[in-house]
Design brief:
By secondary structure, this protein is mostly helical. Helices cover 75% and strands 0% of the residues.
Length: 204
């Protein structure tokens, strides 16, 4: 009676390896764009087979989505740290907020913005959804604490300041408009937030 050959085991990745894949993909995608970085390129840099890579992420789109979620998770973690000090010192929180925005947006280069606009508009919708939530939650809280401390103008409702900020971000911080204006993500966000904050600050 012939013996059956055992089924070959599919390669697998533990959580530490998955995090490493996301970290390498994040560095490559956000700097060079994802159109010019292949799964073969990533597998070679990671020192694993493409088959193993596809077990963890069945498509490049799934990996891009994981990169975006990882990025937003890190942004939210940093904004949580800003929120811890804002009630006690709004001025310090504002500076930390700007530093946080500049640090995180500096990682996103024009190639990634171009690719997400041309190749994955559905993923850009994920970006828009995430950033709306972060702006409403963290900027809204900062403006409310700023009003209590006298650092933010009390004659403009907080929800209106947030809507102005959201409107500017939605109009400008999209791939088509950034390319048209010749702006990087860092330049666009920093300019919008500085203008809104300067308009919202209470003058001595």
């Amino acid at each position: 009676m012939p013996t059956r050959k055992p089924k070959s085991q599919e390669p697998s990745l533990d959580q530490a390896a998955v995090r490493r894949v996301v970290a390498v993909a994040r560095r490559q995608f956000l700097v060079h764009g994802f159109r010019s970085v292949s799964m073969d390129d990533l597998a070679a840099e990671l020192g694993m087979s493409k088959k193993t890579l596809y077990v963890a992420f069945p498509s490049k789109t799934a990996l891009i989505e994981a990169v975006l979620k990882d990025k937003f998770k890190e942004v939210e973690r940093d904004l949580e740290q800003v929120a811890k000090v804002q009630a006690a010192n709004v001025g310090s929180a504002l500076h930390q907020l700007l530093d946080c925005v500049q640090r995180h947006t500096a990682e996103i280069q024009p190639a990634f913005v171009r690719d997400i606009g041309r190749e994955s508009p559905e993923l850009f919708q994920l970006v828009e959804q995430k950033r709306r939530g972060l702006i409403r939650r963290y900027f809204g809280g900062l403006f409310e604490d700023g009003k209590k401390s006298g650092a933010i103008r009390s004659d403009i409702p907080t929800h209106l300041i947030i809507e102005i900020l959201l409107g500017a971000v939605q109009s400008i911080m999209n791939p088509t408009k950034l390319v048209e204006l010749g702006l990087t993500v860092e330049q666009g966000y920093s300019s919008i937030i500085r203008l809104v904050l300067e308009g919202a600050l209470q003058r001595p």
